[in-house]
Amino acid sequence: MAGIAPTEDSDARQRRDWSPVAPSWERKPDQKDLWRRVATMPALALNRVELELLGTVAGLSTLIIGTGDGLAPLALAALGARVVVADASSSLLDVLLVRTQVLGLNIEYRQLAASEFDQLPDAGFRYVYAAHLAPRTEHLDLLYRQAARLLEPGGRLVVTEYHPVRRIWKPEPGALRAAVSYFERRRERRETDGADSYVPGGELARFDFQWTVADRVFYATAAGLRLAALEEVGEVRQDWEVPNMKGLPEQLVLAADRPEA
User: Parallel, antiparallel, or unpaired for β 107-111 and 125-131?
Assistant: First the structure.
């Protein structure tokens, strides 16, 4: 497929040993101007694994589900992708719109709730990118089915998540102690901010959702996508994490392709 470069076996082995997360993942609260630099330094927003899996995006239609922190849309637009961002939050889209104008980038915005995703065209995108959606997604299978519908034949879905193995520990210093089972997929929410209402199947009022690595692979393949990569990225302890999880993977990156025929 155009825009996706094959990865040499030696490079792939090295990548699976260890790869750092993007600097935006580790940024401090006072780094408020990171978005101004991401247009000239896309690696501030996208880690090396994501950049390799996306390959050459210039001129290619790319759907980003959810604004997130707004850095990935700016980075991909700066790389030349024809970016469409779909999010139900008008306030988040407004912030991204202003930043896009300041940086002189072109991004199309669609304010869409989960129930309105059918307004997006079938087979309309070469890439679909989503980051950190799973905890707000009650029906993860819908996310992958939507991606399979929206991708053109040969298109690629790239999903990045905070690694699910880091979500099970008690928020306390010292030795790690499990707060919940890794396999407990439905959990009462501690906070309800409503910021992620764009997620297909999201039930935001009461629950977070814990999907295992195997769940992600299963739903991607069940949607008719072909798994292209499953990578674990980073291993350090972040400042905002209370327990010391150094040595555990920080992010999970999944890539899956819609078959050509």
Answer: unpaired
